[in-house]
Amino acid sequence: MVIQTVRSLNFEKRSESVPLDDAYGRVLAEPAIADRDYPALRRSLRDGFAVKSANLPGTLTVRGEVRAGETEQAPLSDGEALEIMTGAPVPDGADAVVMVEHVERLRDRSQVRIDRSADPGQFINVRGAEAQAGSILISAGTRIDASHVATLAMTGKVSVPIVRPPSVAILATGDEIVSIDQKPAPHQIRNSNSYMLATLVRSTGGSPTVLPVARDTRAALDALLENGLRHDVLIVTGGVSAGKYDLVKPALRDLGVQFHFERVRVQPGQPTAFGTRGHVPVFGLPGNPGSTLITYQLFARPALELLGGQAEPILPLLCARFEAPFRHKAGLTRFLPCRLSADGQGLRHIPWQGSSDVPALAKANAFLVADHDRETWDVGDSIRVMFKP
Ligand code: AMP
Ligand code: MG
What we know:
Blueprint: H1 2-7, E1 15-19, E2 32-33, E3 43-44, E4 48-51, E5 58-66, E6 80-84, E7 96-99, E8 104-105, E9 111-114, E10 124-125, E11 136-138, H2 146-154, E12 159-163, E13 167-172, E14 177-178, E15 189-190, H3 192-203, E16 207-210, H4 218-228, E17 233-237, H5 248-254, E18 258-261, E19 266-267, E20 273-277, E21 280-285, H6 289-307, E22 317-322, E23 326-327, E24 333-340, E25 346-349, H7 358-363, E26 366-370, E27 376-377, E28 382-387
Parallel strand pairs: 5-6, 13-16, 13-17, 14-15, 17-21, 19-24, 22-25
Antiparallel strand pairs: 1-12, 2-11, 3-10, 4-6, 4-7, 5-9, 8-9, 18-20, 20-21, 22-28, 23-27, 24-25, 24-26, 26-28
Helix pairs in contact: 3-6
The structure holds adenosine monophosphate (AMP) and magnesium ion (MG).
């Protein structure tokens, strides 16, 4: 629903250029094109001897050597071998490379004996085998990882065209919220959500703006929500449940936001709401940090990825096996903090006191995804696991 709606928003993406060193994690705005054939000539894949396969098995005269970084040599003649290093150009006339381990040097070193035959083409990368000049190496809309940085460097991209990060307003709400440099009274709570959300937004490639905390009054909310709606995305936390002072949804509605859903069958996070005003997506996430984290990951993150130019939002899940029995109350899909073993195959549920339990979140390295239609898991039963952002 979020993905479909956001795709249809007609959001205008702008691009900018960044130095290659700053490109990691950004989204490529234009395809990366091969500037020449890769490899640009026939290259050896092994240290060994370049030969004519038709001469093998046999004794060959070593005509010399070619190292990586040297230019092409004269063509190989019948009965000749050329000592060759990995990455060096294979001379014309040679159609195979024999690994040095399979070659016996004769005493005067001007000859080698090779007792086996060679397949034509073996250990040679022909020109353009990896990519041909002009072909697309990375498509636009790809989030740049380390291998993409290598590709861009290989093709000489000193500066990289990237999609400009969407600007994301973050609004925490609640009369009980105080700033993190204050000592809260027992009935108060420090504003952890704004910091967590700003971090999550940055990790999704967005540019966060944290607004002042809104008190639970319509006057306070209206002004700050209107301000937030001027950004590309608005994320509100708190004030979206059914309580008497949960005023966010009526305030947003009065400001012209249309809601596409106002509840989800996920715990934590049931009261999550999603709407749009014009081309601005608006997320109302419940205020408890556990709920905020999970619902950001499930609902807001894909929207930010799309607006940030990423062609396909993805939420990678893996499977692991319980190392201790586990049960939950069926009915809702639950995302619960867990600890994955070092090999990523086993997991243990971390006891938690509900979605306000930030210390349990901090102990977890992943979330198990308990299906809504199953109650118990035995030791060794497998379950889906979501990475912790
Ligand atoms: P709400 O969704 O407004 O009912 O808030 C639920 C609970 O989430 C509140 O009682 C707070 O304990 C907690 N909470 C709300 N906003 C924040 C925030 N910005 N940072 C940390 N905890 C919060
Ligand atoms: Mg509240």
